[in-house]
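Co-fold these.
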Amino acid sequence: MTPAGSLLAAHDLRKAYGSTPALDGASFSVHPGEVVAVLGPSGSGKSTLLHCLAGIVVPDSGTLTYAGRDLSGMSDAERSSLRRGDFGFVFQFGQLVPELTCLENVALPLRLNGVKRKQAARTALEWLERLEVDDTAAKRPGEVSGGQGQRVAVARALVASPKVVFADEPTGALDSLNGERVMELLTESARSAGTAVVLVTHEARVAAYSDRDIVVRDGRVRDPEFAV
Amino acid sequence: MSIGHTLLGLLESGPRHGYDLKRTFDEKFGHDRPLHYGQVYATMSRLLKNGLVEVDGVESDGGPERKRYAITDAGITDVGAWLSRPEKPEPYLQSTLYAKVVLALLTGRSASGLLDAQRSEHLRLMRVLTDRKRKGDLADQLICDYALFHLEADLRWLELTGARLDQLAEVIAP
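Predicted complex below.
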């Protein structure tokens, strides 16, 4: 069962690590250009849900549909290609390659998709400007502040015009002022590009940047879109 | 908010008519709840009677008479004392939400459903405020932030209470 018009939908997902259930019948959907917050206490299964939706973790059972295609039937290579081409990621920290400059980090998804070096650098710089961190272009991640690093990560997540950005506690390591600016820039950029955002957070102030929210508790997810 | 002290404070920068005072108050503090003219004039009469303001002039310009008010030395002292006096922190000990949760448990209704509905309502308002903050100036941002932090505190309480419902049901069982 897939809600009409949804871009990415999950139905009755189950995933256990050993004997511990992380997801216990989760249903979820996101429409193109929509920002959905996934809320819930620590250990509730929020991140596992995000990892399943993004094809990083394979659920034990349940259905996953992306743009009308059954994700669970895809091979590893197909899922990797989807992650590279259609999905973007922002995590709490540690996501930038420390040996590369911030510009090279942002250009990386384009380079992996076969874009020529000069064109990739030009587009990457535009995104750094948009995220107000073009002054970090020549610096390495270790030389910039946490807030700047997260904006670089947002630029990298959006640079290849993904259809969905998965953001897992993207402001978790930032003070509230920097966190709010990152959320403003992430949601504004995604909305103007028509990119959907799946935003995992335990902070209500961060969730308030979304269009709607769902709550995960004890591995169970309720999405009113699935309510009959 | 003490409207009297706020209007007095606005008068410190120079004499104003009642209409000017209302307009400035509404611009700076009355976004959702503008002052009624009646409130302004009743407050000014009280301040006048207490010697905190005086009538600086009366103009008519062919229409009805308009009084211009000026703050007195006693008024300036009063504003100073108000600004330096800390506000009493709200104890928040008479919570309607808590009472609703207890009654839901006592009457066998769904307390977690009640908490979920409240959470959803809080988040809805937080979205409205976040949107207003995004489009507004610094004053708007600070006013909305004040409300957002309080709503967030409520949400944390809702979450914590949700995790303790079983415990609470045992404690309040008749």
